[in-house]
Amino acid sequence: MPTLNLFTNVPVDPVIASDILKDASKAVAKIIGKPESYVMILVNGGVPISFAGTEEPAAYGELISIGGLNPSVNGKLSSTIADILQTKLSVDSSRFYIKFYDVERPFFGFNGSTF
Fold first, then answer.
1. Under DSSP, is residue 79 helix (H, G, I), strand (E, B) or coil?
2. In the chain, where are the structural domains located?
3. Percentage of the chain with pLDDT > 70?
4. What is the CATH number of domain 23-42+67-114?
């Protein structure tokens, strides 16, 4: 159920995308405390993004989860995902926003139903 949707203006090579998917999936599961089998990661590269008036490498993320989020967890997630983006795509952490959504079960669909 935790879903991380990442957008970046950096073109993402399939090998790098695979590394980001693996690293982010493990990190999200560990930090939130949910089984990795529930985690979904999406990487959208080459998306037109302007940040602070420039088109230098930047990224935006949205993390949605049913529970498990709080200020401490969100801080760890933000830092960890920023590190992954810096390492894999050279996106500086000062050019990355992430929004967290803690949703209730009826507002998250899976397997033709809701949780």
1. helix
2. 23-42+67-114
3. 100
4. 3.30.429.10
